[in-house]
Here is the input.
Amino acid sequence: MSLLDSALVRLLPAVPKPVVQMFSSRYIAGATLGEAVDCVRGLNAGGKMATVDVLGEEITREDETRAIAQAYRDVFAAIHEAELDSNVSVKLTALGLDLSYDLCRENLLDVVRVAAGYGNFVRIDMEDSSTTDATLRLYRELREDGHDNLGVVLQARLRRTLDDVHALADLRPSVRLCKGIYLESGSIAFTEYEAVRVNFLRCLDALFDAGSYVGVATHDEWLIDESLARVSTRGLGQLEYELQMLLGVRENRRDELVAEGHRLRVYVPFGEQWYGYSLRRLQENPAMAGTIARATAGRMLGLSR
Here is the structure.
């Protein structure tokens, strides 16, 4: 992390909202469902799939969690009406996990049932390590109850993840495998860059061994190459895996991968709570804060690449 990146992170909370929005606008579809629909429509036109995330992580009341669940019902209706190639991603804290496990389960079950009614799919995002046990417990409970239109996310940064892969193997889970952005203690997480990479590939191999459908979620070119080499070696067909990236990141590379014949899904967050999401994401990844600031400065000066 550079000194500039560190300084930017410390200053972020004092930065005016319009400036933060300028930094982060390319990574968020907008504040409204209509903007998210337009974004997904554009991605689909370019041969890419999407997963829509309703921003809403600062939840303190039960009625707020139910509003998020309703927002997801609206998303599924909009996806169906616009005939979009998109599923959704949900954060369990937005559905009430910090308030009550049972409340969260009720809201998640509601979203999953609505998705099934539209022939669609729900991906449970993984948040920081304090939520991992509850997240995996909820995933298993709903899958064992017969809800097969449900997947989960695993983070290679966590030391426990390979064990979690083995523990889930009987479900043949649909998994988004990512490095993980949350900064965790070295006692529970790999803190060295190469160690995270190595664990990513170990987990990927174990997931493929278990017959899992994997969304390989990374912008790391080396990991993309290594993952695709494994796909090739195993003789996996086009419909047996996918690549995933964040909105606004490595757009040219996304196009290249689609042109090569790979299925690629883009994570599309939207919602009124874009400000809190933006601050957290930039604070969790200081290098990203620096990159965004430099890229934004370059665009303002007419120097962007």
Summary: The chain has twelve helices and eight strands. Residues 62-82 form the longest helix (21 residues). Confidence is low (pLDDT under 50) at residues 299-305.
